[in-house]
């Protein structure tokens, strides 16, 4: 990839929709940002940007592989001039005792030569706060939130100092709110103290939005930090406040309309997405796939494409696999969770590919894994970040795609308001 200028911030995200969320946050804070899918190839040309978010799918893979891929991304970002690298994790600290936050942090810290790394998943405006090292999701501690039942990374301990210490080779300390509220120099002093005592990482509390700014300014003294979009916001604001990044620089995103047919795909079964699909039925044709037939073979994707082709020239359509929790559980019990999920993701990717071959240039996708499968199949190398549809969900303009100009929106299951699909299409012209 060729870049016109030096990068001020390099980010490595452990999943695609989290990467979009971060890229959106950085853009809103005034950084011209591009999101790439994996480490970009040398021939991908980009306009001048301040930040690059390299999206990996490394949250739930084997830890050694997550380390290898994250190191490759870090090397690439540093070679483009990034002084600071943020390893972007989920704001609910999704991980297990085997990783992958600790092992990736350890490896990137060794590369960076930092003695200590600031770590926080806090993002108060989205209800993620950290107090005395304990992560709260809205009103409840992490281990009482729905994350306790997460299918891949069930979170049973809210104390992030303990959670990270189990995954990392280094000692993990705490910088509590009482220190943070005394300002950046108090944080610096405690970091130096922890580092002198042999701690290699510090969970830092954050309860209010302003706490992120203190954290961001201290993080920039270092080469590496670990956290979610909240610390990204703090770092972006610190970069703008320092005058390094000119927030008035013209947007990197062209606003010429892309036009062409538009389609929506939903593979998320979250409450929010089920409601959004029900509302979309009032404004566009909706096809509900038969999940049992999807698992049985390719015919269901073919049927969906035939249905779509007779409609896409008249207006947007929506194709969904989403079902209620009871139906999902029944399908999983018949076929296994992974096999059912994989078959449906691949069917969604087949449908996306067929739709694009039929001329679709504007595509909305609901579901994190579903989005990953679709973007991989379409072989889109990266995105410029445009207008915000809903909190954490920007309009993405594909760069370097084989199919020419394309607009996408990738929505993590629970994101977006009740009219998300029409809200997205209204901004994707
Ligand atoms: P979210 O962002 O809500 O977690 P994802 O796309 O990440 O959404 O995950 C949803 C998972 O559920 C995917 O693996 C998808 O293939 C699978 N899935 C979609 N529809 C169904 C269904 N009807 N039954 C079982 N699994 C489904």
Task: Give structural notes.
This protein is of the alpha/beta class. The protein has 2 domains: 9-242, 3-Layer(aba) Sandwich (Rossmann fold); 262-427, Molybdenum Cofactor Biosythetic Enzyme, Chain A, CATH 3.40.980. The protein is 39% helix and 20% strand. The chain contains 15 helices and 18 strands. The protein has helices at 16-28, 63-79, 101-112, 160-167, 177-180, 184-196, 209-219, 229-241, 271-280, 291-296, 299-309, 325-335, 337-357, 368-378, 420-427, and strands spanning 9-13, 33-37, 51-55, 84-88, 117-120, 128-131, 134-137, 140-141, 171-175, 199-204, 224-227, 262-266, 286-288, 317-320, 362-366, 382-390, 393-399, 407-411. The strands form 2 sheets. The protein has a 15-stranded mixed beta sheet, sandwiched between helices. The chain has a 3-stranded antiparallel beta sheet with strand order 6-7-8, with no helix packed on it. Helix 1 (16-28) packs parallel to helix 8, helix 6 (184-196) crosses helix 7 and helix 11 (299-309) packs parallel to helix 13 (337-357). The radius of gyration is 21 Å and the shape is globular. It starts with 8 loop residues before the first strand and ends with a helix. 53% of the residues are buried. The mean pLDDT is 93. Bound molecules: adenosine-5'-diphosphate (ADP). Adenosine-5'-diphosphate is lined by residues 267-270, 291, 321-323, 328, 331-332, 340-341, 344-345, 367-370, 412-413.
The total beta strand count reads 18
Structural class by SSE content: alpha/beta
Tell me the count of domains: 2
Distance between termini? 27 Å
Number of H/I helices: 15
CATH architectural grouping of the largest domain: 3-Layer(aba) Sandwich
The radius of gyration is 21 Å
What best-fitting shape do the alpha-carbon axes yield? globular
The residue-averaged pLDDT reads 93
Helix percentage range:
25-40%
Strand content: 15-25%
The strands making up the biggest β-sheet line up spatially as 9-10-5-11-4-1-3-2-16-17-18-15-12-14-13
Largest sheet: 15 strands, mixed
Q: What is the CATH C-level name of the largest domain? A: Alpha Beta
Distinct compounds present: adenosine-5'-diphosphate
Low-confidence stretches: none
Which topology of the largest domain does CATH recognise? Rossmann fold
Q: Quick one: CATH superfamily of the largest domain?
A: Putative sugar-binding, N-terminal domain
């Amino acid at each position: 990839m060729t870049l016109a200028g030096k990068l001020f911030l390099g980010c490595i995200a452990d999943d695609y929709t989290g990467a979009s969320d971060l890229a959106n946050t950085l853009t809103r804070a005034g950084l011209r940002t591009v999101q790439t899918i994996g480490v970009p190839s040398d021939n991908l040309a980009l306009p001048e940007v301040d930040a690059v978010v390299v999206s990996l799918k490394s949250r739930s893979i084997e830890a050694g592989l997550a380390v290898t891929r994250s190191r490759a991304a870090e090397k690439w970002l540093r070679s483009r001039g990034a002084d600071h690298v943020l390893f972007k994790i989920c704001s609910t600290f999704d991980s297990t005792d085997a990783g992958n936050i600790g092992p990736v942090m350890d490896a990137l810290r060794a590369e960076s030569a930092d003695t200590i790394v600031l770590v926080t998943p806090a993002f108060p405006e989205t209800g993620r706060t950290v107090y005395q090292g304990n992560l709260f999701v809205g009103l409840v501690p992490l281990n009482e939130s729905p994350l306790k039942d997460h299918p891949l990374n069930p979170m049973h301990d809210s104390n992030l100092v303990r959670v990270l210490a189990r995954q990392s080779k280094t000692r993990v300390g705490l910088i509590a709110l009482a220190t943070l509220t005394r300002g950046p120099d108090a944080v610096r002093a405690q970091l130096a103290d922890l580092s002198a005592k042999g701690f290699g990482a510090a969970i830092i509390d954050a309860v209010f939005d302003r706490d992120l700014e203190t954290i961001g300014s201290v993080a920039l003294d270092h080469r590496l930090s670990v956290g979610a979009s909240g610390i990204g916001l703090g770092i972006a604001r610190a970069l703008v406040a320092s005058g390094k990044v000119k927030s008035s620089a013209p947007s990197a995103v062209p606003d010429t309309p892309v036009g062409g047919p538009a389609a929506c795909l939903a593979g998320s079964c979250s409450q929010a997405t089920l409601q959004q699909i029900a509302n979309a039925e009032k404004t566009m044709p909706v096809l509900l796939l038969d999940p049992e037939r999807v698992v049985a073979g390719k015919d269901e994707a073919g049927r969906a494409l035939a249905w779509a082709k007779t409609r896409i020239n008249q207006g947007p359509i929506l194709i969904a696999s989403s079902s209620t929790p009871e139906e999902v559980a029944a399908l999983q019990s018949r076929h296994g969770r992974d096999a059912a999920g994989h078959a449906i993701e691949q069917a969604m990717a087949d449908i996306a590919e067929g739709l694009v071959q039929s001329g679709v240039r504007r595509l909305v996708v609901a579901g994190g894994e579903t989005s990953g499968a679709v973007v991989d199949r379409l072989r889109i190398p990266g995105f410029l970040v445009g207008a915000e549809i809903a909190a954490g969900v920007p309009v993405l303009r594909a760069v370097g795609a084989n199919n020419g100009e394309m607009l996408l929106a990738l929505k993590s299951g629970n994101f977006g308001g009740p009219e998300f699909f029409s809200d997205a299409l209204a901004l994707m012209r």
